[in-house]
Amino acid sequence: MKKTDPYAALRFREFNIFLLVRFAMVFAWSMQFIVIEWEVYSLTKDPLSLGIIGLMEVIPAVAMALFAGHIVDQSEKRGLLIKCIFGFSVVSLGLFLLTWPRIVAGLSTDLVLYLVYFLVFLGGIVRAFLGPTIFSLFSLLVPKKIYPNAATWSSSVWQMGAVVGPAAGGFFIHWIGVHWSMCFVFAFSLMALMLLLQIPKKPILNPNLGEPIMKSLKEGIKFVKNTRVILGALTLDMFAVLFGGAVALLPIYAQDILKVGPEGFGILRAAPAVGALLIMFTSAHFPLNKNAGMKLLVAIFGFGVSIIVFGLSTWFWVSVIALFLSGVTDGISMVIRQTILQLRTPDAMRGRVASVNSMFVGSSNELGAFESGLTAKLMGTVTAVVFGGGMTILTVLGTGFFFPKLRKLDLRKDLEEHEKQ
User: Is the pTM of this model over 0.85?
Assistant: First the structure.
């Protein structure tokens, strides 16, 4: 039996640079979101203003996703990613200026607020292009036979950035204030830009350059629809995120149910991320390719059970363990889903498939938070969380029944085929 190298992807210099770029961007984006949330709420003292921030970002990100996928498939990936990071840098610089007391001193609070919303909207446009471009560039940096290992490291780096970014945002607001925190975000985006310049241009592998946009979009949607394994994986993840959004209700649990205050809230908030990060590093040493489809279904089923346990718990450490396990199972599903997408997506269609993925998963994060808040208002907090976990389990059972190819999926066969090419 051939031994798997857990560090295979890290032996490629360009992929290491890619990981640094991805971490810098996820860190900067996550930190910026936290800092701007803080600033907007400080200006308005209105919880609705926080919801508007998310809405301003998700509307353009979802509305432009398919168009962005077409552009990505028609473009040189490294050059397009440079443009995306430059766009993010412009948004960060604008927010840095809008948090500078000397500049906003003569402006009304409403005008500052509208300008912040406008810049967040522009950031949503950048986000529509950023995800598919990163996904497409990834495939050009390592051989296909080590895609699963590379997907594991890429997902781990994403998770690290998503954990460290918000935490750093909170500390930096306390230490140096909102304005200089935004300067730090801007500096990280420039660092990502400098790093990316060390990766040379890559060939465009799409044989249909200049293809009409409507034909291109239809082919992308048709491919996802007809590739049952990809459609099943995306559907499963979308509904798991949509119904399993218990994290959105953590402030209520920390304050009113578990009564653990801000310190306990911090532990609860970190528990899923720690679980996900742990499983991602572990999967680099113990790949999840064998019986990947069944492992994906079992992982999401376990995620639903963890959410139900968390919803019913009135003991703090039981709740922490339940959230930790939800992160473990979510980490397993993330690694397997990314591997499926990388192995089953043709090079010429990576941008469009990644765009559909961002529509499925990206929008469901915001909609999941809305669903959790709405059901909590209608049913009560505990009932809403248990309902979400139960719906996640039903989704797993339905997906396993209607997508038998996903249930029987074994990624070792895909890897063997790529090694023969």
Answer: no
